[in-house]
């Protein structure tokens, strides 16, 4: 990772190992995205405190805190991207299908947890479409997979990933529209 480059899956995986957080990289990214999409604010709070994550290691180093803040800024910018450039942080496409599918489940599980932690008044005002999206994300988060035809399975994962990508942006847009103070909360 370069100082100005985006935080990647491997960067977060290494951070989790250093801090012994007991979560997966995709789940951590999902939690942070869910927290922000739900209108959560990081003002005056560290990423780990906001997400209620405690590692077995001692306090994060300055570099680790900086990486978490960079990831938070990246999530916020991507969720609000008018070009719809947001992507869930998952293992690379060259990783085994089963690993990527499990990471998608982890990401959705994290997203729903983070969304719930945000706990804003905007949640009470969610549209029927947004409530249905949350239910669908819950279905993905509770999934287990049976793999058969690799090409069909790959296509199915791509479809789920596209749904999740758009769902996160829609929820972010709806929650931040109800709570204007939720925008630009990462410092």
Automatic annotation (TrEMBL):
Return the similarity comment: Belongs to the UPF0149 family.
What is the protein name given in its UniProt record? Answer: UPF0149 family protein
Q: InterPro entries given for it?
A: YgfB-like, YgfB-like_sf
Identify one Pfam family in the record.
UPF0149
What PANTHER family does this protein map onto? UPF0149 PROTEIN YGFB (PTHR37528:SF1)
**Biological classification of the source:** Bacteria, Pseudomonadati, Pseudomonadota, Gammaproteobacteria, Lysobacterales
């Amino acid at each position: 990772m370069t100082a100005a480059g985006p935080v990647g899956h491997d960067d977060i995986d290494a951070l989790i190992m250093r801090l012994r957080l007991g979560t997966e990289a995709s789940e951590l990214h999902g939690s942070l995205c869910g927290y922000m999409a739900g209108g959560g604010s990081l003002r005056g709070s560290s990423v780990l405190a906001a997400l209620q994550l405690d590692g077995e290691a001692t306090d994060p180093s300055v570099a680790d805190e900086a990486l978490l803040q960079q990831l938070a800024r990246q999530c916020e910018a991507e969720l609000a991207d008018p070009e719809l450039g947001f992507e869930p942080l998952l293992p690379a496409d060259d990783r085994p299908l089963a690993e990527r599918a499990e990471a998608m489940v982890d990401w959705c599980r994290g997203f729903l947890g983070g969304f719930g932690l945000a706990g804003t008044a905007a949640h009470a005002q969610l549209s029927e479409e947004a409530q249905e999206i949350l239910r669908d994300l819950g279905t993905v988060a509770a999934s287990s997979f049976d793999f058969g035809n690799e090409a069909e399975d790959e296509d199915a994962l791509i479809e789920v990933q596209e749904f999740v990508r758009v769902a996160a942006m829609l929820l972010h847009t709806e929650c931040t529209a109800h709570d204007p103070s939720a925008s630009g909360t990462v410092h």
